[in-house]
């Protein structure tokens, strides 16, 4: 597992590089990944616009900023994503805002289809669901936790809908996009702070 993680980190890019890549692909009418379908190209263009908006408008509250600065454990966030993924377009910008606040978090992005062994090691219910955040101890190289492919509230909505209807509909997917827009990253920040509290090697607890 450590070799797979190390390989993923070596092949990863900064969030800034990922954003530049998505923007370039959107301008060229292309997408990341093996499938270059018109549908995925469309989603890449849409996600580029979404991320531009989130990069400009997302805010981490003063309380969250203060408490994130208390996190004193050096970790790496390795996020598996693709440019066409709608959930990734909403989640990755929030993770970036958190990592900008917390100096002990190193944030890297890696592409799913270019790293099949890494993806296969972090399946969600047997599926290659993204985005997937892998939290790594910088000292030991061990995986401490994972997060994704959706924040906790969205996961609950999705699971309940599937339990009743068997599969997600296009209408539900559109409603989920509205949820992300209305929530403005708050649930993601809450989830991440909860995870950091579990990892924090002290009695100082963070608050969202």
UniProtKB/TrEMBL annotation:
Any Pfam family matching the protein: Thioredoxin_9
SUPFAM superfamilies: Thioredoxin-like
InterPro entries noted in UniProt: Thioredoxin-like_sf
Name used for this protein in its record: Thioredoxin family protein
Gene source species: Hyunsoonleella pacifica
Lineage: Bacteria, Pseudomonadati, Bacteroidota, Flavobacteriia, Flavobacteriales
